[in-house]
Amino acid sequence: MNSSKIISHFRKFIELSSQDEKELDKFFKSKIFSKKEHLLLEGSRCKYHYFVLTGCLRLYYINEKGIDQTIQFAIEDWWLTDYNAFSHQSNANFSIQAVEKTEVIILDHKDQEELLLKFPKLERYFRLLYQKAYAASQFRIKYLFNYSREDIYHHFNDNFPEFTNRIPQNLLASFLNMTPEYLSEIKAKKRKK
Asked: Which residues of the chain have pLDDT under 50?
């Protein structure tokens, strides 16, 4: 398997020797998932951490009204899993689905633990990623509490056009906590301006 993309991503955060790169390769396996295929189902054991090589994934759950609620998306160079379930090797509280045909690198829990022991500098890599992700989650919560749905959409669209241009409207609406119809109204208003 060619792991050059994930190695390049590591290099954005940490230094790696050519020997490190050769040894890292054995930890990674790639897999392709079809559009709408599930990588993880709520209630099943969460075994893997996924790095997106190409495509897009979403993390979601079904709420008490039977409606799926998207929590997070992951595009190229992003990691995704049900973090609590993965850490504890327990059953998932969320599902992960391919939004489009997606190729991922799969890292199982045992291999990730071994990887971090063998390459301590990857602890730094994951810490930096988790800090960025946690900060983004805090801002998302702030926007959900303090801004109108219209402001939330415009902020998201202005800051993350790579998502709004490729994610189906019903999934984007789910992520932004609004109906697809209301999202259409907001988009129509913006076009008139």
From this structure: none
